[in-house]
Amino acid sequence: MADLAEDPRMMTEPVDCPEDGPRAGMPLEVAFRDGVPVFRPGPGPGLAAGPAG
User: Mean pLDDT across the stretch 42-52?
Assistant: First the structure.
């Protein structure tokens, strides 16, 4: 789950995450795989990994 800066929440697949996995508050950036948005760790604010489940 990713919370977008514009307020919506988006079901997504985190990619290229550290071995310990995504964590709440981790900044993310959008990437596209086969035209589908996925999220990977990123340097900037604005996107954050939401709680699992």
Answer: 57
The rounded distance, in Å, linking the Cα atoms of 47 and 53 is 18
**9 near 3, Cβ under 8 Å?**
yes
**Beta-bridge partners for 33:** 36
What pTM value is reported for the model? 0.61
How many other C-beta atoms can be found within 10 angstroms of the C-beta atom of residue 6? Answer: 7
Specify the residue for token string 């990994």: 49
pLDDT for the residue 46: 47
Nearest to 3 by CA among 50, 52, 53, 51: 50
